[in-house]
Amino acid sequence: MSDAPPLCLTVAGSDSGGGAGIQADLKTMLALGVHGMSVVTAVTAQNSLGVRGVWELPPEAVTAQYRAVADDIGVQAVKTGMLASAVLVETVAALLADTGAPAVVDPVGVSKHGDPLLAASALDAVRRELLPRAAVATPNLDEVAQLTGVVVEDEDGMRRAADAVLALGPEWALIKGGHLAAHGGEAADLLTDGETALWLRAPRHDNRHTHGTGCTLASAVAAGLAKGQDVPQAVMEAKEYVTGAIAAGFALGGGIGPVGHAWQWHR
């Protein structure tokens, strides 16, 4: 019998359309050779057009899922996504503190369609409880503004944003500049721990089917950490993977389609 692959746990909401959330995370982990496991924090009714409803799970259910996996199978890296409310943020932060595995925190605030996925009352819990548990925090520019008040309009702004996010406690900040690319710029992300700074650049794609990009990048970073990579290596390989997935994004339904998680298998 062959050895088990690296073990990675996603703690996030479900996307019924299959483009983001738990579904995107597990597809990404499979594509990158990691055994993905899941803790569902909320169920959403969504499709390519938007989110029709959100139902969060009680903290007892989230804790039971997490402990069932961690206590028996084990966890080598964790990725968090949609946590919906302050009580779930606090619950997950406490679980991370007791795990000992590196955590990639994607502080999901809104969906690709602009639908809110995190209660405003939960922002302080994210700042106070969750981000200090993160090996890597991966906010996009809208999430940076929510969490720090820093509004980014250029790459100098991304540097200020990174400093503001690091001040909240994560070991590394990965500031995703895709929103600048949408206005004609380059798809540049900034990774820094306050001393080392690494710019990750990729050509801007005109493909509009990018649903699940943030979830995919964060779970790809977590997959790399589960394999034993250091943070810069995990982020660089994750950026390469998500760039290919964006290029392979496809139409689905009447709105914004998902990225192509299996692009490496169909080249």
What's the total number of strands? 9
Tell me, what is the CATH class? Alpha Beta
Shape: globular
Helix content: 25-40%
List the helices and strands in order.
EHEEHEHEHEHHEHEEHH
Low-confidence stretches: none
CATH architecture: 3-Layer(aba) Sandwich
Radius of gyration: 17 Å
Total helical elements: 9
Give the strand content.
Answer: 15-25%
Question: What is the makeup of the main sheet?
Answer: 9 strands, mixed
Order of strands side by side in the largest beta sheet? 3-2-1-4-5-6-7-8-9
**CATH topology group:** UDP-N-acetylmuramoyl-L-alanine:D-glutamate ligase
How many domains? 1
- How far is it from the N-terminal to the C-terminal residue, by CA? 30 Å
Structural class: alpha/beta
CATH homologous superfamily grouping: Ribokinase
Mean pLDDT: 92
